[in-house]
Amino acid sequence: MNAAIKEIFESIQGEGILIGTKQVFVRFANCNLNCNYCDTDFSNENCMELNEEELFDKIKKFNSESVALTGGEPLLSSDFIRSFLLKYKKYLNKEFLLETNGTMYEKLSEVIDLIDIVSMDIKLKSATCEENLFDINDKFLNLAKGKVFIKVVFNSDIQDSEIEQVSSLALKYSSPLVLQPVSPIDTSIPFIEIYDKFYSKYSDVRLIPQIHPFLKVR
Q1: Range of the structural domain that residue 41 is part of
Q2: Residue whose C-alpha is closest to residue 70's, from 118, 128, 131, 116
Q3: Tens digits of residue pLDDT in 57-106
Q4: Contact indicator for 9, 25 with CB cutoff of 8 Å
Q5: What is residue 39's predicted lDDT score, i.e. its pLDDT?
Q6: Distance between CA atoms of 51 and 173, rounded to whole angstroms?
Q7: Rounded to whole angstroms, how far apart are CA atoms 23 and 63?
């Protein structure tokens, strides 16, 4: 079994509650969404077709204690991920983080028992121009509960109704909530006002921008 992988590299996690920690990043090609702000090349052009053993050989060269499965949308390769982790996770002795857009709960069910932590984006229509999928996000969070934190990329167009829906989901599943201003950061966004609207509904919320632009790293 092979997977289309864009790149494998070691760097510092630049988003979410694991920000600043050293990780190996395995970036899968392809995505089921096309978000307005996406800054990632997830096309399957110029990607590696790796089998499970080849991926294992590449990951084991790094000394990071954590691996981020990212994309694109890694759950499009859920069969490969499950097979790979069943065979090699115990030999790597690393935690595995799944970074996902939170829309493929059926695929999540195939791998959640092998994943240590899930970073699940809630894609807001106000930022992505994709339709809000809160019902699907709800089903995803139900499967990932106990392992998941929620990340929301937002801009100044965020709607109060979106804040209400996201806060309700975070509260329902007691999931940490990370608010991430869209990059590059628009300083006209009322960050604290938006944060306070979330905080008034759910207190386990953090405002964390991407650190990659500041550090000038991937």
Answers
A1: 2-215
A2: 118
A3: 999 999 999 999 999 899 999 999 999 999 999 999 999 999 999 999 99
A4: yes
A5: 66
A6: 36
A7: 9
Is 180 in contact with 151 (CB distance < 8 Å)?
Answer: yes
Q: How far apart are CA 218 and CA 213, in angstroms?
A: 8
The DSSP-derived string for 149-173 is: EEEEEE-TT--HHHHHHHHHHHHHH
Count of domains observed in the chain: 1
Kindly state the tokens that stand for 199: 């905080």
How large is the angle between the packed helices 160-173 and 134-144, nearest 10 degrees? 20
pTM for this model (two decimals) = 0.94
Cα gap 203→195, rounded to integer Å: 10
Retrieve residue 97's tokens.
Answer: 């983080």
Residue 140: give its domain's CATH number.
3.20.20.70
| Amino acid at position 3, single letter | A
